[in-house]
Amino acid sequence: MSYREVNVNEITELVSKMVIDANYFLPSDVECALKKARDEETSALSKEALSDIIENAAIARDKKMPICQDTGIAVFFVELGQDVHIVGGDYMEAFNKGVAKGYTEGYLRKSVQEREIGERINTGDNTPAIVHTEIVPGDKIKITVAPKGFGSENMSALKMLTPSVGKEGVKKFIIDTVKNAGPNPCPPIIVGVGLGGTMEVCAYNAKKALIRKTGEPSSDKVIAEFEKELLDEINKLNIGTAGFGGKTTALAVHIISHPIHIAGMSVAVNINCHAARHLTCEL
């Protein structure tokens, strides 16, 4: 059986470039959503704030500097082809070396500390990275990086509900999470939702949902309708851009659903600020 060799150095170099580019260049799908929101906004103050956000992204792109001072934890979603053979070193270490190189050479803020309890010591290079790897058919490596700042991450939540709450109970938890977050996650936000599965699967899917093209509906018609319903309700909260009120609290709601045990009804909400950074490359 044939396989394709990929040297770890290729991963390191690609990851290094990706973390810089993801922090300098706002994805076009996010920028388009922001411009659409600005054009449709009825609040003068929020319209002005949206214009400032768009201008800030343009300055970051032109001057090659971070969109936001919080350059986040480096989170990766990797589709690793089963016919790929990693050679020349350790797979995870390749990602960490790439993150360290990129965050240093790109002058990106290093925000990771060694432990939560005890002395809070910065690791000095924004490692370790968080790498989610899925084995898929083929001989390619598809890497998506999504630097995640904690102004929005801290507003996320997970709840293990029971089936008795029904759809309305799930909906209430999601909307309440956004309402309680208020202006803290730097709206307009993108709301990632994980439905079903065990606790960790639910949370993982909420985070993964954030890397979908902004506003692209789920391929599942029922889920797509629920996404639209949630977005409409969230945008009635009048939190608005930067908390200034108006019709744009969220740019999109993205849901990933997973089968679940008959006794459960799990829901996770992972919120992303308007600097919804994500970049995909392939080796």
The CATH architecture term of the largest domain is: 2-Layer Sandwich
The number of E-state strands comes to 10
What does the largest sheet look like?
4 strands, mixed
- CATH class wording of the largest domain: Alpha Beta
Short description:
The protein is an alpha/beta fold and 283 residues long. It has helices at residues 8-24, 28-40, 44-63, 91-105, 150-153, 166-181, 199-209, 221-234; strands spanning 4-7, 75-81, 84-87, 130-136, 141-145, 157-161, 189-195, 250-257, 265-272, 279-282.
How would you describe the overall organization of this protein?
The chain is 39% helix and 21% strand. By secondary structure, it is an alpha/beta fold. The strands form three sheets. Strands 4-2-5-10 form a four-stranded mixed β-sheet, with helices on one face. It has two domains: 4-22 and 67-147, no CATH class; 150-276, 60s Ribosomal Protein L30, Chain: A (2-Layer Sandwich). Helix 1 (8-24) runs parallel beside helix 4 (91-105) and helix 2 runs antiparallel to helix 3 (44-63). The mean pLDDT is 96.
